[in-house]
Prior knowledge:
Layout: H1 5-17, H2 20-27, H3 31-45, E1 50-52, E2 57-59, H4 61-89, E3 93-100, H5 101-106, H6 108-118, E4 122-129, H7 131-139, E5 145-149, E6 157-166, E7 168-171, E8 183-184, E9 193-196, H8 199-207, E10 219-223, H9 226-234, E11 240-242, H10 247-252, E12 256-261, E13 266-274, H11 281-290
Parallel strand pairs: 3-4, 3-5, 8-12, 9-10
Antiparallel strand pairs: 1-2, 5-13, 6-13, 7-11, 7-12
Amino acid sequence: MITSLRQLRAFITIAEHGSFSAAAQALHLTQSALSGLMKELETHLEVRLFDRTTRRIDLSDAGIRLLPYAKRVLNEASALQKEVELLKNGGSGRVKLAVSQQLAASAMPRILGAFRRRQPDIDVQMLDCSVEQVIAQVHNAEVDFGIGPERKTPEGIEAVELFTLPFYAVLPPSHPLAAQETVDWAELRHEPLILLNGSFSDHLAAALPTKLAPLLNRRRYSVNFLSTALGLVKNGAGLTFCLPFAADWVHSHGLMMRPLCNPEIERRFLIYRRQNRSLSAAAENVLRFLTEPGIWQPRPETETADGAQAV
């Protein structure tokens, strides 16, 4: 026979009330049912827990020693149940994400901070890496899911669109084009450009019409990281391009963003997941948050990252 939580709860309640009748009422049991629970517990433990007389009931020496342990077990069981409910509801747990480097360095700190304020008991761990590593981490089941720009995926990986955003021009506030609401690609024909190496610029070159594609050859610098490009723009070396999720980063350098048009070129970012693998409730909560409307949109240029008015 195994000691049950019901028996321990009966033992604690009798000890607290000092009466079988009062304890039975508190537990919504008949007195005979409560007596049966205590008899089973004492038989299993092979000790007497209460000294009974016709007028009163007192804890025995064994009961006095075992009562704190019984309370501890019941408290731990209650905590376990609460934790199970949190896990079922996605209110706690650990979630691991793989995120492409530029996205991880720009928008994700703000977004994860907002999620942490909403769901403080969910521990989100982020691995920043190349897009190829994002897909590899998902494929090897080392993360719950990954986020990155569109790529071909191996068998067993599914990709669902998270957001599609247009490219922006990044320029100093003093630049003449900063006075415009939008910037035509054709207006960049004579501007020195700072381009990112790899797929970011390759996507732009492939999407531009044939007559505009040569303007990307006017690059003054080719760099690996957006942070380097922004530093160069800030110091007058030329203009660069970004996506709206980098707005906080751009504004922190004192720079402006203007949508590029004629044509408007967009880039798709996807959620990468293993097929036929369900997410935990906590991971589903993170995923729902990441797909909320507007969460990837840039902040107004009149605000700093903490919401204060910029000067």
